[in-house]
Design goal:
Order of helices and strands: HHEE
Largest sheet: 2 strands, antiparallel
Strand order of the largest sheet: 1-2
Strand content: 15-25%
Oligomer: single chain
Number of helices: 2
Shape: rod-shaped
């Protein structure tokens, strides 16, 4: 492109992101699962630890 081509172009700013959507919906899902099994043994213990995964999806 030459300087003449660029000079003939125009641009305008987009509105703020909040103004582009009438409805702003965010789904947040948290999952926390753990399982411990202590079956058939006397005097033993069972321990479970769980990590939490958090996800947010915005439309």
């Amino acid at each position: 492109m030459s300087g003449t081509d660029v000079a003939g172009q125009s641009a305008e700013l987009l509105p703020a992101r909040e103004a582009l959507a009438l409805i702003n919906i965010t789904n947040i899902t948290a999952v926390n699962l753990a399982i411990a099994v202590n079956a058939g043994t006397i005097g033993s213990t069972a321990t479970a630890a769980a990590l939490q995964h958090l996800a947010a999806f915005q439309r």
